[in-house]
Write a structure and sequence with these properties.
Shape: globular
Distance between the termini: 88 Å
Strand content: 15-25%
Structural class: alpha/beta
Strand order of the largest sheet: 21-24-18-25-26-10-31-32
Length: 997
């Protein structure tokens, strides 16, 4: 199979043009220098010497011309213009998967064609990328010869054992491309590059490179430089480059930016795959003391760590991020006995050596970053992740097989031994992951949904043939963990990458059975096969940039069996199998994109309109320009559409939505382009706009007097304003029976489980958004080694019942076996049921009593408590309420308020404010309405009304029903004198009318 390259992709041509136009005005020329071969001493006595002509790049442009070219390029691309030419470093930002390597390789040919430049050095951070670039040079050679009339080119991998290649690099007049890892050039005392060598004619290789003034191309500069003053940056400068072109998706230091195709542009233009996440979260697994180390910090000498703990909250046990310090008692922190005698010990913040010491009864654990203590069986979770990856893969095969597209899946693991081990004789043995994979693959193959994929396969061997590993290899050919920290390990990595790169096209062939690849986490950079559709990381995605790095391995658009690129999100969908909720995944991905790229979501930059095309006086199209862009930005700021930092305000979203955006007359012709820029930055989220909030003033009558001060309202208020206290009495035997019945009816106790949810991830200028889709599933986890807690003591603490009463309830319920299934959930559910029954028992025997005439809610509180609400939840311009508008919380309340307004019997009414509360054993109760009704102009009736969509107790939550019973008892206690207020429950105003009749 042969990969085909598309020569006319507009975004790639723009990136090439941006770099080439930096040198506009440069004449085609080169520099020549003498390279002498110093021969051995005995030959020198005969007067024999050999001299070659060196050929190098030469720049004739002045800095002022280069700066002007740079500013023109930046203006065309809508980038912030550089004020000075601070260095010869130029930045090209291209999202992973958009053809960055192709772009800089073609740029080499274009620079040679236009200006005659011939010497290029490509510097990469790792063996993986070096092998990748070399493979790209090989497979594009024919393609570029076709475009550039067969121009000769020599490319080679720098090898300190073959320094003669460097002499050839210096003396050849054809295009020369040297590919080198930063590790081979960034140590002056070790690297042969800086030493005299016979192979280069006695010269130091670095001096020959210097003399050529090469154009240095840096792939992933954030990993090469080692900071602005790092060894990598120093090594680049030592080559005396004509200029340095820096290509990456994630620049740590942005020099002069000449082209930008960021994650947002790539996603919006569908140049990469659509991302979706299948997210696995563990639920109801709180039966062990769980601690996970997330991060450590040392701020001004104060050392702390952020850990994940299972914390007791008002709504049950929740996993939360908590900051802890040395000596902290985790039982106090979590308010859970399961953490008894668990303490935080030493916290180490040294970079690369971070850990937290966890002390617990009978031992201690050193937790590294991302590591957890007391988690569910990790292998059980990883089995489910492998199973889900296989199912996702097979679903894609059914979809894409008819389109002639090979589907690949990629697993990242931390340790080779989890996939491959070796016995004492050196024979390969399957590790846990390989064994689990084959078991799950055979299981999936038997499912009816996938029968069409396995019709002619021998399942005994198929499961072994479809997976393999790519890891570093030692000299015996054994796989080893990857680290490129010395020459030996780099050699091991090189052996692995040779294999990966050699098999790149072979892997894309449907006839090749290999479909599932296991690779070391550290090998990520080398793996970006276009047909990777599933990526599963069999460990926690922890550090910054990990989600972007992981996703980057599968972002490229896929190819079919002819090597042709296939476009469209309906085909190109990358599924990431992750162990975090999809909301967290989206949120963390957004943080990583912001940290990596400097993109500020929802922020309008002052230069953002600079590239908008306008018609010049001669009719040609020219960019709007930075000054005009800033003028437009200032207008939007003055209108309150952006704040001083450029953050988009809700008023701009509303103006765009309603088509009411006001622009200065000078910009009217560009309205469509401007609106498009603003729409991308603003996002598509519908939110409750602050602009829609409205104050709700008190209504005044025709004489200008506030209605709430009228005699009519005073008469109503005097009947309901007094405060009460209550007493309770209950029957203990009835309570125990109610608790037993409640436990028997309670839902089943679930075992710890893995909950799968699936969501599409959309990356836009407003941020990263996750939208849930079909694909949810639940898997039960076997949590065998649970230590059972003290059930009676725990329930006694939570319910304040005696041990005897608790034993009666538990034995009477017949549910004790559920305790073993999930102790923590059983305790929480039982305690909640007992406490609920206690509250109901209290309500059943409740008696209210008026405190006295001096304890009441003052009428004046209405004036002090200013109401505001959203227009969409408001009945406007009322005629009978004490307020001008009525805020409602439901459709039932809205319909009820409309009926109050239209019924002539209603003299006035009030939606009772939140401060009007009736005390109950279940918390305060706030009734809905107070109404004064006049019957046939003769009799006045006073009501307090509670509106609910249903009056049947089964439809109401028990707590709500109990509060209403308390409200009824409270108002009954206030029934004094003739014509007191009546308490009613109603679904419609007709229920009130029935009471009137």
């Amino acid at each position: 199979m042969k990969l085909h390259f598309e020569p006319n992709l507009d975004y790639q041509l723009q990136a090439i043009e941006a770099v080439c136009d930096l040198f506009r005005g440069q004449e085609t020329c080169r520099t020549e220098f003498t390279v002498t071969m110093k021969l051995p001493d005995q030959q020198l006595t005969l007067g024999v010497a050999e001299t070659d002509l060196g050929v190098g790049n030469r720049l004739t442009l002045l800095d002022d011309q280069l700066l002007q070219n740079l500013r023109d390029v930046q203006l065309r691309g809508g980038l912030a213009p550089s004020s000075v030419l601070a260095s010869g470093d130029f930045t090209v930002e291209m999202e992973t998967g958009t053809g960055k390597t192709y772009v800089y390789l073609r740029t080499i040919f274009e620079l040679n064609k236009r200006y005659g430049f011939t010497k290029f050095v490509i510097v990469v951070p790792s063996v993986a990328i070096k092998e990748g670039v070399y493979k790209s040079l090989q497979i594009t050679e024919e393609h570029f010869k076709g475009i550039y009339a067969g121009v000769p080119v020599d490319f080679f991998l720098y090898d300190s054992g073959k320094l003669g290649q460097v002499r050839n690099f210096a003396t050849s007049s054809t295009i020369q491309v040297m590919v080198v890892t930063v590790g081979a050039i960034n140590k002056k005392d070790v690297n042969n590059l800086y030493k005299d060598s016979e192979k280069t004619g006695g010269e130091k290789p670095i001096d020959l490179i210097k003399a050529t003034r090469p154009i240095v191309i840096v792939d992933e500069p954030q990993s090469v430089d080692g900071g602005l003053t790092g060894a990598g940056k120093t090594a680049l400068d030592a080559m005396n480059p004509l200029c340095t072109l820096r290509y990456s998706a994630t620049h740590a230091t942005k020099h002069h930016m000449v082209y930008r195709l960021d994650a947002l542009d790539a996603y919006e233009r569908k140049l990469v795959k659509q991302i979706e996440v299948a997210a696995a979260t563990i639920e109801d697994a709180h039966n062990k003391a769980f601690v996970r180390l997330l991060s450590v910090s040392n701020k001004r000498g104060t050392i702390s760590a952020k850990v994940e703990l299972d914390v007791k909250t008002a709504t049950g046990v929740k996993r939360q991020d908590i900051t802890v310090s040395d000596g902290d008692d985790l039982q106090q922190t979590t308010k859970r006995d399961i953490y008894a005698d668990f303490r935080v010990g030493e916290i180490n913040t040294a970079k690369g050596e971070e850990f937290l010491e966890l002390r617990y009864p009978g031992g201690e654990a050193m937790l590294a970053m991302g590591q957890a203590y007391g988690d569910v069986d990790a292998l059980a979770v990883q089995r489910e992740m492998i199973r889900r990856t296989i199912r996702e893969h097979l679903d894609k095969e059914k979809l894409l097989g008819p389109k002639n597209i090979k589907v690949l899946s990629l697993f990242f693991i931390d340790a080779v031994e989890r996939y491959r081990q070796y016995d004492k004789d050196g024979n390969a043995v399957k590790g846990d992951y390989a064994r689990i994979f084959e078991e799950e693959y055979r299981r999936a193959a038997k499912l009816p949904a996938y029968q069409s994929l396995f019709a002619e396969l021998d399942l005994a061997h198929a499961a072994e043939d479809v997976h393999n590993g790519y890891f570093s290899r030692d000299k015996q050919g054994k796989w080893s963990d990857t680290a490129e920290n010395n020459a030996g390990n780099r050699e091991n990595a090189e052996r692995a990458y040779n294999l990966i790169m050699k098999e790149k096209e072979k892997l894309l062939d449907i006839k090749t059975p290999l479909k599932f690849i296991f690779s070391h986490s550290a090998l990520k950079e080398g793996w970006d096969n276009p047909n990777v559709f599933q990526i599963c990381t069999l460990r926690d995605i922890g550090t910054e940039r990990e989600r972007r790095q992981t996703i980057g391995r599968g972002l490229r658009l896929c190819v079919d069996q002819n090597g042709e690129r296939v476009r469209g999100f309906e085909v190109n969908r990358l599924t990431v199998i992750a162990t975090e909720s999809y909301e967290q995944f989206a949120e963390n991905l957004q943080k990583e994109i912001e940290a990596d790229t400097g993109i500020r979501f929802g922020i309008l930059e002052q230069h953002q309109f600079a590239a908008i095309a306008i018609k010049a006086a001669d009719g040609s199209l020219v960019p709007l320009g930075v000054d005009q862009s800033k003028a437009l930005w200032d207008h939007l700021k003055a209108a309150g559409h952006v704040d001083a930092k450029g953050k988009v305000q809700d008023s701009l979203k509303l103006a765009l939505k309603n088509g009411t955006l006001a622009l200065p007359p000078a910009f009217e012709a560009q309205r469509a382009q401007i609106a498009e820029v603003l729409r991308k930055v603003s996002g598509r989220l519908e939110i409750k706009n602050a602009d829609e909030r409205k104050a709700v003033p008190l209504r005044k009558d025709k004489d200008g007097k506030a209605v709430y001060l009228s005699d009519d309202f005073k008469a109503l208020w005097d009947r309901i304003k007094h405060q009460t206290t209550y007493r309770v009495q209950f029957d203990n035997a009835k309570l125990l029976n109610a608790c037993i019945a409640g436990l028997q009816k309670a839902p089943p106790i679930a075992k710890a489980r893995l909950q799968w949810r699936k969501a599409d991830i959309a990356i836009g200028k407003a941020g990263v958004q996750a939208t849930e889709k079909e694909g949810a599933a639940t898997v039960v986890l076997d949590d065998a080694d649970i230590e059972l807690p003290d059930l009676l003591t725990d329930l006694q603490d939570r319910t304040q019942l005696t041990r005897r009463s608790i034993i009666t309830i538990l034995t009477g319920s017949g549910r004790l076996d559920d305790f073993k299934r999930n102790p923590q959930q059983f305790i929480e559910q039982t305690a909640e049921i007992i406490n609920s029954c206690k509250r109901m028992a209290l309500v059943a025997g409740i008696k209210y009593q008026k405190i006295g005439d001096e304890h009441f809610y003052a009428q004046e509180l209405f004036a002090k408590d200013e109401l505001t609400g959203y227009l969409r939840n408001m009945l406007l311009d009322t005629k009978r309420s004490i307020h001008e508008h009525v805020i409602y919380d439901s459709d039932t309340e809205c319909t009820f308020a409309e009926a109050l307004e239209t019924n002539d019997g209603v003299v006035l009414y009030a939606k009772l404010p939140s401060w009007f509360k009736v005390p109950t054993p279940l918390g305060p109760y706030n009734p809905d309405w107070a109404i004064l009704f006049e019957k046939e102009g003769l009799q006045r009736l006073y009501f307090v009304v509670e509106t609910k969509s249903s009056l049947f107790t089964d439809d109401l939550r028990k707590k709500e029903e109990a509060k209403m019973q308390c409200g009824e008892a409270h108002f009954h206690a206030l029934r004094e004198g003739d014509n007191p207020a009546n308490y009613l429950r109603a679904t419609t105003f007709d229920d009130v009318l029935k009471a009137v009749m």
